[in-house]
Amino acid sequence: MVMSSENLVIYFISGIVLVGAGILVSHFFAPSSENLQKSETFECGIPTRGTSWFQFKVGYYLFAILFLIFEVEVVFLFPWAVVMKESGTSAFIEIFIFLFILGGGLLYAWKKNALRWE
Amino acid sequence: MNQVVFYFLSAVILVFSLLTVTSSRILRAAVYLLFVLIATAGIYFLLGYNFLAGVQLTLYAGGIIVLIIFAIMLTGSAGEKLERPSLNKFLLAILISLIGTVTSLILFFAYHSFPVIGNEIPATVKMVGASLINPGDNGYVLPFELISVLLLAAIVGAIVIAKKATR
Amino acid sequence: METLQLFKILPEKIYFQNIPYLPGFRKMVGWNLDFSTLTRNIHDSLFSFFSPGLASAAEMVIIGLCFLTFFALLGLILVYAERKVCAFFQLRLGPMRVGFWGTAQTFADFIKLLLKEPLTTKNADKFLFNLAPFIVIVASFMAVAAIPFAKGLHAVDLDIGIFFITAVSSIGVVSILLAGWSSNNKYSLIGAIRSGAQILSYEISAGLALLTIIILTGSLQLSEIIESQRTGWWIFKGHIPAIIAFVIYMIAGTAETNRGPFDIAEAESELTAGFHTEYSGIKFAFFFLAEFVNMFIVSAIAATVFFGGWMPFHIGNFTFFNHLMDFIPSVVWFFGKVSLIVFLMMWFRWTFPRLRIDQLLTLEWKYLMPISLVNFLFMAFISLEGWYF
Question: Does the interface predicted TM-score (ipTM) exceed 0.85?
Fold first, then answer.
């Protein structure tokens, strides 16, 4: 069964519709009785203090940026890997330069302790 | 069926783009943007350019939206509603958008016919790869290597700014 | 065999051939349990009823329904297997009372989950709260479409197969972040941010590990990757770097599905169920189901890329042995390999202690990523020299 990629979009839409129908059906089956106690935020029995939206460490954002940069690198490696076998030495040298520079970037991040905090 | 899917995706892009810029809650705006980007990937699939659709999903929907959401959560005031712009600014924005739309439409219809080109050039991953490492004419090996330098600059820049912020 | 012949649409061609090294004997070469005639029949009958556009839409809806029921079955079987495996590792028996040897346990659990009240907390952002489990199921739904289950049983055979699966798995991260944030709960938010950072980091190593084999294959298309393993599986043909890549992919894969020793995001003793604390009823069932389906997808990709998918165990051009191996239908091969790798992932979970978040991120950025980059270059070098089988 080889489908063209247009059908992929139809498949996606049918997935959304079917899953949505599933959620709607379950809403009919499940009981629904809200009261004040049940709607409170869960914190092991004690009432919450302060707002739940707080400012967290910058370290997480740095990981997200590093992820994005290395993901761009991986995306460039995909077409390269496909043509590697028939291209020979020049392809290998080019990718060596590419990965060397980016490995240098990783090393820089390591040395600057950007990878340290959780 | 192709047409129906195209109109559906275009409707999704238009509606959710409007919702993104007019929503008062910033995290919802990010999620609407996610839908716009996924629908754009769908349009690339319809064009038959599968590799670009995959890149769009990986980098945009899976990378940049996550980055935006992290950034929004970092500000700490992600839950508050943004203030509504005043009526003057709103009308001015609509006026400028209309001027832009009318200009674009006039330029489009200055061409008297829209010739429909079929997908004569299939853009497979092999072709993209071959042109990326091609050192001759129509080859992109120099931009390919320069991209690694650009990414290195991005890493260095991000770390320098983040380190300065924590100090 | 005769009873199966009654089903006219089932392809049951038994091949007979005079094999020269067994003089005078006609031996069965193998069952051609090829699903492509079945699917072609359905395809043709649909196209004869409706117009082409509507027929392809109807086809996709049918495939979608099949996959959703497959999800439900998979959830039932895998949850039962997990509980049994966990029990046997801990020297106890697991669920035994409901049904024969506890087989109806997950069915009962699922019905209970459906009938629970879907609560939303007071200050939660209702739209995002309801959207998050939706996105996570749709992401898995898209990924499972591209997996080849058997010869001819492959829903969408894109020419960017592996890349597509990696791409839609990235969308699952967004749903976890939204779930944690919109619950308006500190525990959920911490769990979600940590889980997001973890999944993002390990995606890079997983992609690099898969790329290591793609160098040898020369194509991203999953059916071609399987075809290229006709003379042997890549983990054997691509000796050392392939084995290293498999180990890296297994570690990265377990981390990506928030399982095993990497489940800091939903650790019960630490964060009271993490980012899905506030979910109940069917939305919790979706998160739960999505975790097991993602585990299946990771195992299926590992089985396809490293172990040959539905391709039986062939050794080079040793035709006698290959014909012997072809006896077993390709579906059995595929599900057998996937079951073994799923068992491996369950084994990880119940053996290793949990990693802290900073240990987890150190493992990825300081160990796995440099190793996978070096392994990738090593494999490129080997492919250049031709030192693989």
Answer: yes
